[in-house]
Design a protein that fits this description.
heterodimer, A: about 260 residues, alpha/beta, 3-stranded parallel β-sheet, 9 helices, about 15% strand, B: mainly beta, 5-stranded mixed β-sheet
């Protein structure tokens, strides 16, 4: 593409539409290599208790994924209520020297990791009032998405299917409904299993895709990271190019004139 | 005096600051965030903030996650 195809989340501008997580990798070295291969600019991290008294020289994730090289996106994964999510974001902001971009996810239950929208709204309201830029993991309800945007969330991130399921984009019609109304970026935040899923999300016109397990649990995570980078770019270009209309019958690609006959 | 660090009981001397605690736990210089009784203690106040008996201290860092 000739023109620069960037997008804006809150106060920040990005080129890569692939956002990646750092969980579930074999080790930190694999994490670093895969994330470099993905070309991602925004990288999610979790906030957890430090192990006390266990191997103080343990390598730190931030040594591999440096805030100087990536826009870190601390998440509230594992939080099942607004209070824990807010505390986690406050700790993340302190940990990252005032960095205010966060991924809010408040979960409903362990089995589905489906968002608890009531708690998500409560947490979003408080975090926005505290000056955070909130990218919000949410269900695929277009009305909920509109409300989150109206509150001031900087990106709407519906699931394509359950977190870590790899089932792909099961709700394209709902995601389209969300995109039709949204003026902030819409990113698919869960469900991608392989490269074609990412391409499908981008061909639909999503602004980006956030994924973790699809890369980390591939047989070869570094190669899959590279595949995802290409799939996101291919899907984006296909969306911008505009696909041909679907037809019920064949339409020959070679001219019908000048055929030899027997 | 007794405090709780990341859910575990911990004995510290009187007049222990957050910086002292981090030193005892061999965590000085690490990328961390500290919360005491659900309130953030900014890095700039670690050396002056004195721990109190019964304090609930949370020390967190960044790990892999989606």
């Amino acid at each position: 593409m000739t023109a620069k195809d960037t997008f804006t989340i809150g106060s920040r501008e990005f080129s890569s539409r692939l956002l990646v997580g750092t969980g579930k990798y074999k080790d930190l070295q694999e994490t670093g290599t895969a994330i470099a291969a993905s070309g991602a600019e925004i990288v999610t991290v979790a906030v957890r208790r430090t192990n006390i008294g266990q191997n103080p020289d343990e390598p730190n994730l931030l040594d591999v994924i440096s805030p100087d090289d990536y826009t870190l996106l601390p998440n509230t994964a594992g939080c099942f209520n607004a209070k824990d999510a807010i505390r986690t974001c406050m700790l993340a902001r302190e940990l990252l020297d005032g960095h205010n971009l966060v991924k809010l996810e408040v979960l409903g239950d362990q089995k589905t990791l489906y968002p608890n929208m009531r708690e998500t709204f409560t947490a979003a309201e408080k975090l926005l009032a505290e000056g955070f830029e909130v990218m919000v993991y949410c269900n695929d309800d277009p009305i909920a998405a509109q409300e989150l945007e109206a509150m001031g969330c900087v990106a709407i991130m519906p699931l394509g299917s359950l977190i870590g399921s790899g089932l792909g984009i099961l709700n394209p019609h709902n995601i389209r409904l969300i995109m039709e109304e949204a003026k902030v970026p819409v990113l698919v935040d869960a469900g991608v299993g392989t490269a074609s899923d990412a391409a499908i999300a981008m061909e639909m016109g999503c602004d980006g895709v956030l994924m973790n397990t699809a890369i980390a649990h591939a047989q070869n995570p570094v190669l899959m990271a590279s595949a995802m980078k290409k799939a996101i770019e291919a899907g984006r270009e296909a969306y911008l190019a505009g696909r041909m209309p679907k037809k019920a019958y064949a339409s020959a690609s070679s001219p019908l004139e000048g055929l030899i006959h027997s | 005096m007794q405090i709780t660090v990341n859910g575990e009981p911990q004995k510290v001397d009187d007049l222990t600051s957050v910086s002292d605690l981090l030193q005892t736990l061999k965590l000085t210089g690490k990328r961390l965030a500290i919360e005491i009784n659900e309130e953030i203690i900014p890095k700039s106040r670690h050396s002056q903030h004195q721990l109190q008996a019964g304090d609930q201290v949370e020390i967190v860092h960044a790990i892999g996650g989606g």
